């Protein structure tokens, strides 16, 4: 039944995006100066998870490179690359200038190397940029006239709150491209496009795709995950098409798989917070920070911890219950039907 499983993978960049034309156009216009050797303003892509920010950034840059192949693109996921060293290293790697760089190479030398790599413009996509712990990396990139950053984050307010004044003032100007959650019809159309490429004709009905879109509540990553899981289940049972039962079973399946992957991707300190919450069942912030500090050697500041927690809420790993005073954190129930997904 599955003819091309790649199409249902998370990192697949579709050759055509469904909807999001306004967002693609705004980003393309922002980057247009690159076509005449000028430097564009920074571009920001804001919105909740699974709404196509990464996909649209990659797609738009792939299109731009078709017009101007000299433009180089480096992709940095700041969830993993959260220090100045790691960001600069990843950008150098993205433009094939990372040979002979070691852990002990001074950061200033990385910066020097990047400043010398100025024969062609470089667009740096900084995904999950609100996870960056050393925002000096942004200051570095801004100083380089041949580097154009595209920054992706959930919320503008929290992102700018994490910047120091130097970075804030430099990134103040810049185009904001805002993404809303997909409606059921939009998500169903995205899923139909994927299903057409990935599955045999007739493997899934339009009404089933709407059920998936509805269950995913606007998150395309969840929707595609459900479709993938349902198709696999049906295939394992030797069926020629997806049954409603396979679909129902796939909804919690997909959420669990996505959650497992997100937990695996947590950095050490986030993981400790997650473990404390898991052990406690439900816990107040004060007790959470206290227990966290007991478990780590060099604790992060409360502000950083709050940032981690916000991110984990965005990623649907934990939920915050109650208002300021009396607020507690607990794990999100994997089997939840959803509909109350956090923004
Ligand atoms: N408009 C679209 N057309 C086709 N595929 C899409 C579209 N929007 C999202 N997708 C697909 O949905 C999945 C999730 O999208 P993406 O990773 O871009 O979301 P995101 O907003 O960057 O989320 P996060 O903040 O969690 O990283 C990807 O597989 C992507 O290819």
Low-pLDDT segments: 337-343
Largest sheet: 5 strands, parallel
**How do the SSEs run, as a string of H and E?**
HEHEHHEHEHHEHHHHHEHHEE
CATH topology of the largest domain: Rossmann fold
Domain module tally? 3
- Overall geometry: globular
Q: What proportion of the residues form beta strands (DSSP E)?
A: 5-15%
Strands of the widest sheet, in order across it, are 2-3-4-1-5
- Total DSSP E strands: 8
Q: Note the total helix count.
A: 14
Judged by helices, strands and strand pairing, the structural class is alpha/beta
What's the name of the CATH homologous superfamily of the largest domain?
P-loop containing nucleotide triphosphate hydrolases
Round the Cα radius of gyration to an integer and report it: 21 Å
Mean pLDDT: 91
Which helices and strands, and how do they pair?
Elements: H1 21-31, E1 43-46, H2 53-67, E2 72-77, H3 84-94, H4 107-116, E3 122-127, H5 136-143, E4 147-153, H6 156-161, H7 165-171, E5 175-178, H8 184-198, H9 206-215, H10 220-236, H11 244-265, H12 268-280, E6 282-283, H13 285-295, H14 302-314, E7 318-321, E8 328-331
Helix pairs in contact: 1-2, 3-4, 3-5, 5-7, 8-9, 8-10, 9-10, 10-11, 12-13, 12-14
The structure holds adenosine-5'-triphosphate (ATP).
Adenosine-5'-triphosphate binds at residues 10, 12, 14, 17-20, 47, 49-55, 190, 220-221, 224.
């Amino acid at each position: 039944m599955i003819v091309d499983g790649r199409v249902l993978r998370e990192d697949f960049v579709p050759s055509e995006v469904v909807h999001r034309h306004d967002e693609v156009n705004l980003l393309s216009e922002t980057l247009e100066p690159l076509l005449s050797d000028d430097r564009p303003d920074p571009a920001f892509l804001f919105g909740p998870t699974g709404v196509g920010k990464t996909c649209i950034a990659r797609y738009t840059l792939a299109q731009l490179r078709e017009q101007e192949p000299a433009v180089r693109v480096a992709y940095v996921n700041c969830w993993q690359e959260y220090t100045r060293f790691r960001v600069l290293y990843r950008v150098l790697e993205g433009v094939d200038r990372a040979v002979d760089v070691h852990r002990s190479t001074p950061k200033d030398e990385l910066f020097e190397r990047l400043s010398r790599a100025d024969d062609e413009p470089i667009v740096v996509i900084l995904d999950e940029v609100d996870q960056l712990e050393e925002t000096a990396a942004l200051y570095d990139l801004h100083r380089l006239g041949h580097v154009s950053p595209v920054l992706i984050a959930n919320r503008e307010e929290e992102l700018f709150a994490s910047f120091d004044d130097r970075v804030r003032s430099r990134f103040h100007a810049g185009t904001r491209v805002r993404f809303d959650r997909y409606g059921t019809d939009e998500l169903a159309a995205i899923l139909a496009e994927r299903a057409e490429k990935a599955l045999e004709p007739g493997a899934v009905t339009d009404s089933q795709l709407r059920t998936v879109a509805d269950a995913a509540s606007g998150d395309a990553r969840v929707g595609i995950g459900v479709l993938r899981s349902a198709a696999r289940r049906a295939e394992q049972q030797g069926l020629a098409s997806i049954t409603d039962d396979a679909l129902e079973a796939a909804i919690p399946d997909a959420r669990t798989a996505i959650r497992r992957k997100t937990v695996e991707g947590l950095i050490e300190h986030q993981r400790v917070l997650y473990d404390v919450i898991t052990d406690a069942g439900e816990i107040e912030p004060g007790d959470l920070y206290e227990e966290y500090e007991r478990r780590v050697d060099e604790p992060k500041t409360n502000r950083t911890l709050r940032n981690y927690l916000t991110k984990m809420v965005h990623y649907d790993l934990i939920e915050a219950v109650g208002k300021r005073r009396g607020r507690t954190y607990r794990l999100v129930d994997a089997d939840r039907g959803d509909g109350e997904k956090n923004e």
